[in-house]
Amino acid sequence: MIARTVTHLDIVMQQRPPGTPSPGFNFAIAAVLGLTGTADLAYGIMHMAFGHLLTGLGATAYAVLLVREGLHIRRTGQRALAPRRMAQAGFACLAVFLLGILLKGWG
Description:
By secondary structure, this protein is mainly α. The protein has helices spanning 8-14, 23-47, 50-76, 83-106.
């Protein structure tokens, strides 16, 4: 039996591509945003509070996006969305969230 030595190339081939986010970190952030977003959605529905509905919608939408991204990274090792698209979607969710906070402050 011939023993095979581990080369530098073998180690490099097993690593994730640089700049690929961790799926575990995406899931952790998604869990926090999903719980708070769902709670805000429920409060907004029960009390007819439009500000809470918007903050819940923004947080929950971004949580769903992060879960989708994390599952795709775990399955393929690559991002589902380009970083630019992910940033655009994140800023759109942030805009909805901040509009909800603004409406919470007025009401």
